[in-house]
């Protein structure tokens, strides 16, 4: 049980409610208050006038690492969450989340939207402190983790409500805010403090299904003012249409933020409710990022910066701003301090509370260093795609997110961000002592976060056949792929699972559509089973007896129409304990 700083009823009654809103791929420059001349965000612009602002706030280059840092206050390399898919976006269940801390302190906890830290027990949001959850699987709608029959549906999606697939009516972002406001209303009626996490999958792609009214508003807009570089005239129409769709999703989020504030006002709880707004990484196209350079997946500042709005009328002066170096790892200790919740002595976080920066209580903010590093692969590599910041300095090696490794010696670049926010003048040669100092600090950081636990970077396992989740849906999001491109039609992989006791499981195979007949072989340790694949049918059932303990489960499908003897993997596997 997490202990409150003070346990008196009066103090408990004075604790704030907490709402954290995080958009997906919005980008540091996609706000009117950040100078964007095209994308409309009037509600967030108004929130800025009522809020404190951290203007030098850093996030990770991509989404799942940011979410692990945000939820734990720890660098994601400590949590086993090191990538965004193929089993590397799953967070170790030993990690204690913001939701767990606040739940144990008496808060009601709810999540609405994107979790992206594991889709099966014991990795789900509902297993990690959230008492109410309405989420999609994987890293977004439109990925192989979508429920069958609801692929790519932002409108009328099938979402996962407290572990159960539920077809819904409406646009996904609207549904998240609707559910969050219902949760807030119920908590308030029950005289309970609440923590509400609204994590939209918009404006993440795909872009085929966006709010139509807003798309019509933006489709003929001139987006030239927010383009980073000129576009070939032959591509301009396509690029403008994509930006219109992104802008429509962003303005839809903004409108929902306005609805949320209206709900808080009507419930009479605005004064003592913390509302935080941020984005999870840089923008998902090359567009306006203010005086910076970069985009999503990059370690230049445009790819790893977000404004952090922090509205708390009871404590934070409207319009207050701080440019102190801060990051996603700081949000958990900040929220816990605001809520009067002490970290247990055994809990170690990398972040520090920034509350004093916004309340003006005068606590010193020491010189500090922030490190951001993320790239594809199963094992982080020293120096690969990292940046270390010590205001105003930035040492960076932008070796590329998409590669598992880089070759040769790192080509380190040094920038003075105060003088050169666009990172256009590498001053490494002029300041070799600063390069050496930051390089040494980075190596020390990498060694530290890489030795948090034994076998530090091994992926977590999915536990199947439990009362917590009797029906497990295994998707390509979480498989350990070993053949072809991870999500391609000719790929295959295996799932790292664990059974608490030996037992018989029904297996339903979801196979790629448009294929002929064939046979599927299911392998789990020494256990095997075969399932006949019928032409014209993409769902097939069989059974297998799984042994107790950890095992790797894979399926090898040989289609009769396949030109070679190479087998391929299923689209999804559904396991139900008999």
Q: Would you mind describing this structure in some detail?
A:
With 578 residues, the protein is of the alpha/beta class. It folds into 3 domains: 9-358, Alkaline Phosphatase, subunit A, CATH 3.40.720; 370-449, Arylsulfatase, C-terminal domain; 462-577, Galactose-binding domain-like (Jelly Rolls), CATH 2.60.120. It contains 10 helices and 25 strands. The chain has helices spanning 9-14, 42-50, 63-72, 98-104, 172-189, 212-218, 233-267, 331-338, 355-359, 432-449; strands at 17-23, 52-58, 108-114, 132-136, 158-161, 164-167, 194-199, 273-279, 305-311, 321-322, 326-327, 370-373, 386-390, 393-397, 413-416, 462-464, 471-475, 480-483, 492-499, 503-510, 518-524, 527-533, 539-546, 549-559, 572-577. Strands 1, 2, 3, 4, 5, 6, 7, 8, 9, 10 and 11 form an 11-stranded mixed β-sheet that branches. Strand 5 and strand 6 (164-167) form a beta hairpin. Helix 6 crosses helix 7 (233-267). The radius of gyration is 24 Å and the shape is globular. Mean pLDDT is 95; it is low at 1-10.
In short:
21% of the residues lie in helices and 25% in strands.
